[in-house]
Amino acid sequence: MSLKVAIVHYHLKPGGVTRVIENTAAALELKGIHPAVLYGAPKKGTASPGARFVEGLGYSGSSSMRRPENLYENLIKAALDELGGPPDLWHIHNHSLGKNPALTAACCLLVENGHRLLLQIHDFPEDGRPANYQELIASLANWREAPEKVLYPAATQVHYGVLNPRDARILRDGGFARDRLHILPNPVSFPGTPSDVEKELLPKQKGERLTLYPTRGIRRKNLGEFLLWASLAANGERFATTLAPDNPIWSPRHDRWVRFSQEMGLPADFAVINCYGGSFPGWLKTADRLITTSVAEGFGMAFLEPFLLPKPLVGRNLPQITPDFGIDLSNLYNRLEIPLDLVGEQRIRERLKAAMETYYASYGRPVPDSAVDQAMNSILKDGRVDFGRLDEPLQEKVIKALAGSPQLRADLRPDELSTVNNERILSENRLIVLENYSLNSYGTRLEKIYETLCGEDLEKPDFMNPGRILNGFLRPETFSLLRS
Q: What is the pTM of this model?
């Protein structure tokens, strides 16, 4: 008999987690498992078969938490209606994110009432999302006297999925049982194909090479570094990003970079899908190469998807994320180093100190005595500073200094984007991605986790201490001004 699985997420709006859910459903179908997808805010257009709207599941958007008991009942009813019986297990995405604390509490109720859960965490509120964390803890405290007895349930019938070894290490160090913790890398598939008509509508200027940053322009995507490379572009090159932020909180910083780019006359376009239309696959097909300058990712889809096209990838590597991918990313840089005297050591220290005090306080923690020194030691290296660890005003200062100065450009390390045009490397990377991150391999991995979870005995839940998870993310040596 096929397993009955209920997949749960706040919404089905276009974005990373929605694509993961779509790929998950497709991967499970290959294994004969027909999941119900329960969501709280609709995807544009008609919802796919097996998807059902659940009242109260979407982002809460306010400090008043909906009644978790109502959401619990709504989830149970929707799953019964869609699956024709109770789920064998619940596969819930980002239950602890803080976007709707009622879901966090409803998960606690599910565990306490004997349901089996796979809690897949893409984004932690402890990782650079202090407003989410504050909202979550405050809301849960209004529901139960001890909010820490809600957030991370621990029982044989509760397993956790994370995207990378870093997150798994943090949870293990926080006391999570190894046999209930799974590294679950996202499936990777090319998201559709553009139509011939659409290809004709894409406004790539004739004769220009397009370097495309397939991203939504939020702060951690490090748009200043993207513009630094645009400022150094050769004649006939153009740079572009695909999407604007959908959360209004990020719009002012994004729009600031748009204005700065226009004022500087840089060969860069922002949010081309929003501005010109066309689809994500259409723009990917149009690009000559892809770029990433992000300073933080949960999984790192941007490092794998280009090779399915295949297209060269340039830009910044994230060595805490990519080593297990098994692909050749040797042309990417780990640091983009500029001379320290362009910004000044004291100025950086002052900004770090102020930012860290605000950041730690937002999590209810004091700044450790040596934290600023630890952060400075990781940002500075041999009289140079990593551009991606600076804030927007300092990044603007550097870009202005570089304008029209070949000598300063030559003092960058690296001083140009290294593009791999080796067909063998592109081909080998493509084969590795297809073999290890295909829908079929993802479905096989999920099916094994599901079978293990369904074979577990039920027990009364305990709860992990969320403070220990926060400790794992509040590490001065990884602190970035772009995430403060």
A: 0.89
Tokens of 454: 């369904």
Coil vs helix vs strand at 166: helix
Integer angstrom CA distances of residue 38 from 6, 109, 140:
7, 17, 23
Fold for domain 5-187+438-470? Rossmann fold (3.40.50)
- DSSP labels, 203-258: -PPTT-EEEEEEEE--GGG-HHHHHHHHHTPPTTEEEEEEE--SSGGGHHHHHHHH
- Asked whether 187 and 120 are in contact (CB, 8 A), the reply is no
CA distance 262 to 460: 59
CATH for 196-336+414-433 is 3.40.50.2000
Token pair in block for residue 154:
């621990």
| Segments making up each domain of the chain, as ranges | 5-187+438-470, 196-336+414-433
The reply to whether 5-187+438-470 and 196-336+414-433 are identical in fold is yes
Cis before 153? omega within 30: no
Structure tokens at 228: 């630094």
CB 107 within 8 A of CB 143: no
Residue 75, pLDDT score: 98
Tokens at 397, concatenated: 């200062």
Dump pLDDT digits (tens) for 33-50: 999 999 998 655 545 667
Question: How many C-beta atoms surround the C-beta of residue 175 within 10 A?
Answer: 13
